Amino acid sequence: MDKMCFCDSGKTFSTCCEPLLLGKKEASSAIELMRSRYSAYVTKNGEYIYKTCSKKLKNLDDMEAINRQSIQWLSLSVKDFNENSVSFMAYYKENSQVYAMQEESGFIIEDGQYKYDSAKVQEGDIQRNEACPCLSGKKYKKCCGKK
Which CATH fold would you assign to the domain 13-142? Predict the structure, then answer.
């Protein structure tokens, strides 16, 4: 049975982000590219992150850092999107602590393809009574938010 996609689209990985990560398909929208980039972080696919950056952002050191990352990405929540930007919350675990990252990503079309071009990133808040980002089904305060 095919697993659900890491990007929380509700689709299976093989029909959602995997074809993009394998280079069998190009992203047809900013939201599709952002979701596939999240899946690339989860699977430590720095090459895909590098490939999908605009020319001004391409950095080989970033690619290697992604391939070596120790972060465990937990879930993604898209807040808003349009033709060239996507706002989202990404939840991750590092050193047994759960964090939220809030980002507004900017995208351009470069050489006929959508490319990641800018970001406004800030630390996000995880509310005590919201569902835990680890997808346990428990409230955050009763799961990863225990002190």
Answer: Nuclear Transport Factor 2; Chain: A, (3.10.450)
